[in-house]
Structure formats: structure tokens, C-alpha cells
Amino acid sequence: MSLGHDYGRQPNPYPGKLVIVEGIDGSGKSTQLGLLAQWLRGEGHLVIFSEWNSSPIVRATTSRGKRRQLLTPLTFSLIHATDFSDRVERDIVPALKAGAIVLADRYVYTAFARDAARGVDRDWVRSLYRFAVVPTLAVYYRVPLEVALHRILSGRPKLKWYEAGMDLGLSPDPMESYRLFQARIQQEYERIVAEYGLASMDATQPVEIQQRALRDLVRPHLTGIARDPRGDAPEIHEGRRA
Amino acid sequence: MRQFESYGQGVPGTSLDDLSGWLIVVEGTDGVGRTTHVNRLRKHLERLGYAVAETGFTRSDLASRGIRRAKQGNTLGSNAFNLFYATDFADRLEQQIVPALRSGFVMITDRYIYSLIARAIVRGADPDWIKQVYSFALKPDAVFYLRITADELVPRVLADGPFDYWESGMDMPMGEDLYDSFINYQSRIIHELDGLARDYGFHTLDATREVDDLGEELCARVAGLLTRKVAGPVA
Question: I need a labelling partner for B153 at 20 to 30 A (CA). Which of A173, A224, B20, B74 fits?
Fold first, then answer.
């Protein structure tokens, strides 16, 4: 059906590099990406951060849809693809053309995993994101479900409706719904890691060990990257969960 | 017994088995007279005793405001616009079209995925890709395509006021001034619609004909289509 029309056929054709991290909530990927950004900036590279769900124009619609619970699996998928497309056109591609290193906390694989967990056809979602640039390096933070759940649920018990997957009717209890939803997402991630050959990181390791491993993965790609004209630029990243 | 089908995998979580109404599409470019004919058709079918519902672009509860805002500033990327329209369409399909069909209504839609596909292709989207994006859509019972050429369109549009920025493709733009861009843009849109008419089997109607004449034919042809698919709800 979608042969030849799905995501991942075209490698990144630009001089810049795209490094992305994926994983379920509580896998520690945002912390790792923040540390990576700091290191890269310290080395003088031009670093651009692109966050999931951040296009200013589309965000108002997404927020409204979430607040008023207007989103179905299909429209949830499409509004996030709209947002992502705007980011690709306006942030990611120009930065890659300029030779920057672009860091993304979550990328198309988040949509593949979440949408499939919501029952959206896998092939359709993969073709939907065909316009997306394929990352230079994609790292999946693999963590046992219980470890991730403990990190999230012990510190922040107030779960949002869609975040908890309440729209799927898996359980009337948000905590239980969240567990079941995250388990589904994790299953989808495992499929995606194999399908697209994502690098896997053992996210139960100490933070500094993981960071060393991440830098080792990134280092071979650090040739020909634009320099940050400001020198050692100030830290601007704030970790956040999508 | 006929049933609704989708072009692809359908709408996630939505069964098409119990849809008993009819989905009638009126297609055609900007200013061709779709609204006039949709209104006539609606009145005609209601006189015959059918319950009629209507929808059209950017009328979704979810995305209409966002699209309006994005159009004002023209700051949204062109592909993002394609997907924003797809979001609006999906919301209307799920929240307006499917419920109306489930209740046995005649759902008349003022344009459908075809115009959205055409505008995306004209703005550089890959035709196979954008068709695949819209593959969740239901196949309508019939598509009536009001066809006109760009040259014939000009006086009709001008009679209603100046050329619209978006209807002239000025976001690209496609000519040195509004007039040139309008002609070029509308010619491209019509060209794409002509291709889609062949691919998707539209009923093409010459929109330069006298309005009453065209309206009567449209009403008669739609009325002729209305035979029940599955047992409808008791009226």
C-alpha cells in the first residue's frame, strides 16, 4: 500500500547533523540530551534545539484539542504531524542546511509509537511522516517499564488526559491507564528500534556512564559542523517532557 | 446491499458497518458556484423528505480557528498547511460526516479530499504522498464536479469582489500581480481536479451552463442515487 512512500528512504542530504533521542517517559533521555548539548556547545559547535510539539501556530490548536478532549486517535496523529511539519520546514531543515548540529528530544518515532498504541494504522503513520529528514543518529533509551513508571509516578502524580491515554478507555483510573498505555508504547518502540536500526542505550546505567556512551556515538559525526560565533554559548536548554 | 468503504485503512476505531446515509460531494474550484448549488440541492432533497446535513472546508470545531489565524499571518510552512487542512478534514469526517451518515442523513459536502489534494499538489506536495495521507477518507456515493476554465472564472469572481489572496495562490505567488497569479493558480488547480476527476470517477458538469439548468440536473441526478444501503433508523 505505502511501498515507496514511507518515512526513512532518504538519508539526511544536508551538511548539518541531526541527533535525536527517543524513549518512554522517565527513560532519562531529556537529561542525556541536555548534557550532550552542553558538551557540544562547550566544544564550540553551533547547536540548535528542536522540541516536540513546539510550533507556535499549531500549538494553540493542539492545546485546545487536548483541553476540551476533542482529539481522536486520527486527529491526535494529524495535529502532531502538522506541528512537526512546521518545525521541519522552519527550524530543522534551515539549521541543517546551515551546517548546525540539531538536537531533538523526541522525533517521528514518538508519533509512530504513540499513534500505533492508539490503534492508528502503522503503515499510514509511516507514510504520513515521509517528509521528515532521517536523523544522522537516533538513540533509544531502553528502560524497564517499572523503573520508568516509578520515576514518573513517584514524583508527579497529576497525569494529563491524553498523556495517561485516557482517551483509549483502558482503565477509568488514570494511573492504571498510564501504565497500560506506556506498556503499549514500549512495545511499539521495540518494533521501531528493529525496523529503523536505532542505537539502544541501557537507561538503567548511571547518568555519567550513559553520557560517555552517547558522546562516543556522536563524536564520529562531528566533522564539518558550523562553529557557534558566540563561542561557548550560554546554556539555554530546559529539560521537559513532551 | 452496498456499504461505505474507505480508500485505505479507514478511521481508527470507527466501524463503517452501520452507516446508512449518503455522502454526496460537490467539487469545483473557488467561485464556481458550489455554494449556490449545495443550497439548492439541500432544499430539493428536504422537499423530497430526506434529512440533509452539510459541511465544508475549515468548519471543524478543532482546527477552524487555528487555520484562520495561520492564514492571516502566512507564517505556517506550506506542508504544515497541507496537514493542518487534513486535521480539519479528519475532525469533520469523524464529528460531522460519520455521525450524519449513521443517522441516515444525506451528507452534502462542499468540496472533499480532492480539492485539498489539488491545492497540496499545486504547492509542491508529492501526489502519491498526499493521496496516501487522505486514504482514511470514506469513498463518497458520488462526486459532482462543477467544471470551469480559469478564464471563464474571472468575471464571476470579480463580480463578487476583488481577488482573494489565497484563491490567487499569492502565498507562493504564481505571477507578477494578483490577476496573473489568480489565472496561473486557478489553471493549475483545475488541471489537478481534471486529473482527479479521471482517477476517482467524478461526474463532471459544465459549470458555464445556465444556473437553473445545471441545478435541475444536479438535483435530479442526486435524487436518483438515493436508495438505502442498510436498514435506516425508523423515521
Answer: B74
